[in-house]
Amino acid sequence: MSGSLLPSALALSLLLVSGSLLPGPGAAQNEPRIVTSEEVIIRDSLLPVTLQCNLTSSSHTLMHSYWTRNGVELTATRKNASNMEYRINKPRAEDSGEYHCVYHFVSAPKANATIEVKAAPDITGHKRSENKNEGQDAMMYCKSVGYPHPEWMWRKKENGVFQEISNNSGRFFIINKENYTELNIMNLQITEDPGEYECNATNSIGSASVFTAPGPQNQFN
Ligand SMILES: *[C@@H]1O[C@H](CO)[C@@H](O)[C@H](O)[C@H]1NC(C)=O
Ligand SMILES: *[C@@H]1O[C@H](CO)[C@@H](O)[C@H](O)[C@H]1NC(C)=O
Ligand SMILES: *[C@@H]1O[C@H](CO)[C@@H](O)[C@H](O)[C@H]1NC(C)=O
Ligand SMILES: *[C@@H]1O[C@H](CO)[C@@H](O)[C@H](O)[C@H]1NC(C)=O
Ligand SMILES: *[C@@H]1O[C@H](CO)[C@@H](O)[C@H](O)[C@H]1NC(C)=O
Ligand SMILES: *[C@@H]1O[C@H](CO)[C@@H](O)[C@H](O)[C@H]1NC(C)=O
């Protein structure tokens, strides 16, 4: 039974591929075409950055256009203009993200294009030690700005060397979100857990880390 299913599944995927390579002539003509400026990498220099989108072909009447960052409309960018510009005067890591220029037409689906603005992670907040006793649970977190969203890692100093904390080592649980990481330590052990902890955020542009410590507070002071 399963042997006879395989050839038809292959045939279907081949059809889909050739279909997307050869779009119907009518569909291509009506597609709005948007030309964008290049992706941007924000480094240490605070030189202004300008993002551009030009609507170069559309058979539909434009209603309005605006910019979004991470899906949220940027205030005061809404206009009726096919050439769009967005200027970031002093670009910082917190300005990084996925920008879209969005075009709304009078009687046609909206269209958009993406410009990625990348930056190395910057850790903008973290929770330090808590005053906890043996047997209680402790939680530390770090949050970041920067794009693409980072890979997170927690390390603990053991005999002078930072060792990666594994999520399935029993008492340690790590929760990672796009720009947030949380280390939970269950059932604190006075003899093992006090010490120096590091959270490390790494993306394709760079990395950042901060050092922190869990309770019980008077054990490491
Ligand atoms: C968009 O159009 C303006 C005005 O014609 C031009 O100066 C600019 O280079 C264009 N931008 C892109 C990304 O093509
Ligand atoms: C936007 O501008 C175009 C071109 O000038 C015009 O045809 C259209 O009516 C305008 N749309 C609105 C909603 O004002
Ligand atoms: C851009 O277009 C894609 C595909 O139509 C859509 O899924 C997405 O929500 C749009 N994004 C914005 C910001 O309008
Ligand atoms: C973190 O990511 C969420 C979801 O992508 C977003 O809503 C939030 O603004 C981000 N926070 C920061 C500090 O970038
Ligand atoms: C760690 O393990 C917990 C429980 O199994 C799971 O919910 C969580 O997603 C894991 N975290 C990571 C970063 O893999
Ligand atoms: C974060 O960890 C990565 C991978 O181990 C390392 O290359 C990088 O130097 C670390 N970043 C910092 C700021 O320590």
Automatic annotation (TrEMBL):
InterPro entries assigned: Ig-like_dom, Ig-like_dom_sf, Ig-like_fold, Ig_I-set, Ig_sub, Ig_sub2
Assigned keywords, A-Z: Immunoglobulin domain, Signal
Gene3D superfamilies reported for this sequence: Immunoglobulins
Superkingdom to which the source organism belongs: Eukaryota
Protein name (Swiss-Prot/TrEMBL): Neuroplastin-like
Keyword Protease attributed: no
Segment forming the signal sequence: 1-28
Ranges of residues in domain Ig-like: 32-118, 121-211
One Pfam family this sequence matches: I-set
UniProt entry tagged with the keyword Metal-binding: no
